[in-house]
Amino acid sequence: MSSFVSVTRDNSVAVVAIDNPPVNALSFHVRQPLFEALTALRDDASVTAIVLACAGRTFVAGADITEFGKPVQQPELRAIVALLETIAKPTVAAIHGTALGGGLELALGCHFRVADQAARLGLPEVKLGLLPGGGGTVRLPRLVGAAKALGMIVSGTPISAGEAKAAGLVDAVFEEELLAASIRFANEMVADGGPFPPVRDRNERLAETDLSAFDAKAAELARKARGLEAPLACAQAVRNAITLPFDEALAAERQLFLKLVAGDQSRAQRHLFFAEREAAKIQGKDVTRRKIARVGIIGAGTMGGGIAMAFANGGFPVTWLETGEEALQRGLAMIEKNYAVSVGRGSLTEEARQQRLGLFKGSTDYADLADCDLVIEAVFEDMAVKKVVFGKLDAVARPGAILATNTSYLDVDEIAASTSRPQDVLGMHFFSPANVMKLLEIVRADRTAPDALATVAELARRIGKVPVVVGVCHGFVGNRMLSARGTENEALLLEGATPGQVDKAFTDFGWPMGPFQMGDLAGLDIGWRNRKARGQTAVIADTLCGQGRFGQKTGRGWYRYESGSREPAPDPEVEELIRAKAAELGIARSEIGADEIIERTLYPLVNEGAKILEEGIAARASDIDVVWTNGYGFPIGKGGPMFWAGLEGAPKIVDRLEHWHRLTGRVIFQPAPMLRRFAETGSWEGAGG
Ligand code: 3HC
Ligand code: NAI
Q: What reactions does this protein catalyze (predicted)?
C-alpha cells in the first residue's frame, strides 16, 4: 500500500482511494500503486465490486502536466484503463469535484460512473494544445454519442453532473454522501448480476452517428481553430472512433497525442497554464488577507458597468456611485439589458438574473461608500477628476478599505498621494468588456501594502479573473506594449501596405484581428483624443477622424461597414488617402511582405516587453505572456510574446531590430539589453541576472 493509493473494504466491496493533493493528478507515484492495487483486487475472489474514489477536494483532475515532455514512466494511464477493462466484477468511479482529462479517462475504464451533484466532468486537454491521450476520444463517444463527444472534446469545457447523467456519461447522481451511496450502488450492481460490458464494447450509440452531419460540424470547428492544431486532431480522433475498429482508433489517438505533446503549440499552452497560476501568486504567502464583503464602484460608464457585473456575477453586493441620478439609471439600465440578453440566450436563469440585480445599490452620495471594503474608481481618464474622487473617498471610506483606480494610463503613485492612506491604494486595470475579459492588471504603487495587493489578487480569482501584478508606468504592461506594437502602423501604410494587408498578416499569425480592424472596433476617436491631449499626431488616422470616420460606430473608419454590418470591407477612399499622404510626404510606396509587417510590429512588442522586465514593471517574462494572451488576443498557440520570442529565435529578432534601427533611427527598434542577454542565454530568467 502507498500513501498515494489506499484500499479499504466495506464487506465485499473494495474502495480504492487516490490521495495526491492538491488535485489528485495521475503522477507516476499514483499510477504505479494504483495499477498494483487494481491487479490484486481483480484477482481477489473475496472482492465482489470495486469503487474508485478520491480524497480531498476533487476526483482526479488529469494526467500530471509536469510530466509531459519527460520520458514516460510505466505503467501509463492507458495501461491502467486497459487493466480496468479486464475486470469482470462491477467497477464504479465515484466522482466529486472535477473528473478532468486523464481523470475522466480513468473513470471511462470503469463499468459505471456515479457523481455528487456539484461534480463536473470534461476532457480539457485541448486547452493544453493536446487531445485526450488515455482513450477518451474513443470511449466518450461510445457513451454520449459522437456529436456530443465532439463538442466536449473540441471545446474542452466540462459539463455538470446533471448534464452528464442526461447524456449517458454518468449512471447516477447522488444527493447523499457520495462514498456510501457509491458502495450501495456497487452492491446493487452485484445483486443485478450483469452482464457488465466495458465501455469499449458499447457500440450502440456510435452506430447512430450521422457521419455527414458530424463532418459538417467538424469542418465548422476547423474554421474556428485559427491555426491551432489540437482542435483539428481532436475532431479527427473522434471521427476515427466512429469509422475505425476500437483498437485501431485507440492507436491512432496515441499517435496524434504524441505528435501534439512534442509540438510547440502544446508547449506554449502548457507554459501559459503554469504562467497564469504563477502570476496569481503574490510574494509573502503569510500575509493576512483583508476581508472583502461589499464592493463600491464609482462611475457607471462602460467600464464601471462591466466591473459592477463582474462582482455581482461573483456574488458580491455592489454600491454603485454616480454624479447624478440620470447617469446612475443609465448604468443600471445597461446592466438590466445585458442580463436580459443572457437570459434570452439561455446562459442565465431568470432566478439568477433577479438575484444578481438584487445585489446592486445605486447612490449619488459618497457617504454610502462607508461600509465598502473595496472601492473601485472608473470615472473619466483625467488626473484632476480622479484626484477629486479619491479626496472624497478618503474622507468617507472605512479604515483599511482598499481604494482602487481603473485608470488605463495615469500615474497611480500620484493618485495614491492625493489620499491620506497611500498604503491602501492600488490600480485594478480591467479590460473591456470587464464582465467578459479575464485579464486584470493589478497596479502596485510605490507604497501599496503587501496585504492589499495579496487580497486583490485572491479576490480576482474569486470573480474568475486572471490577475497579473504590474508596476507604475504609462500604460502599465499591456497598453505600453500595445503602443510599441502600433508605432509603425502608419509608416507601413505610407510605405506601401494597405490596412487589409497588415490585418491579414496578423490574422495569419493567429490573432483574432489585426490592428486596423481592432481600431475600428474600439473607436478611432479614443486614440485621436489621446493624441491631441499629448500633442501627438498620426497623419492618416487624424485625417480619418477629422472626416468623422470613427470606425464601426460611424460605419466608416479604416474600412467601410455596409449598413450596420460588422464585416470590414476595403475602402478605396482610404487607400486613395494613404497614396495622397505618401506623395505629399515624398514617400515612394512599394510592396510590403507579411514578414516585414511582423518584424516591424511584433519585434518591437517583444523589445518593449524586455524593457518592461528590465525596469521591474513586470516580475516575470511569463507574466507578460499572461497579459497578452488574456487581454489582447495574442495567439495562445504561440504562448505570448516573450515565449514566442524563444520560438522565433531571439538572435534573429535582435539582428532585425538592429537593421530597422539603423534604417529608421526609431527608439522602438533599439534592442533592449535584456533582449540581447536573452538572445545569448536563451532564458529570460538568466537574462535577469
Ligand atoms: N497536473 C499537475 N499539476 C496540476 C494539474 C495537473 N493536471 N492540475 C492542477 N495542477 C496544479 C496547479 O499547477 C496548481 O499548482 P500550484 O498550487 O503549485 O500553483 C495546483 O495544482 C492547484 O491548481 P489550481 O490553482 O488550478 O486550482 P483550482 O482549484 O483553481 O482548479 C482544476 C482546479 C480545475 C483542477 C484546475 O487546476 C485545472 O483545470 N487543472 C488542469 C486540468 C487538466 O487540464 N487536465 C487534463 C490534463 S492533460 C491529460 O489529462 C492528458 C491525458 O489525456 C493523457
Ligand atoms: P465612460 O466615459 O464610459 O464612463 C465614465 C463614467 O464616470 C461616466 O458615467 C461619468 O458620469 C462618470 N463620472 C465622471 N466623473 C465622476 C465623478 N466625479 N464621480 C462619479 N462618477 C463620475 O468611461 P470608461 O470608458 O468607462 O472609462 C473609465 C475609466 O476606465 C477611465 O479611467 C479609463 O481610462 C479606464 N478604462 C477604460 C477602458 C475602456 O476600454 N473603455 C479599459 C480599461 C480602463
A: a (3S)-3-hydroxyacyl-CoA + NAD(+) = a 3-oxoacyl-CoA + NADH + H(+)
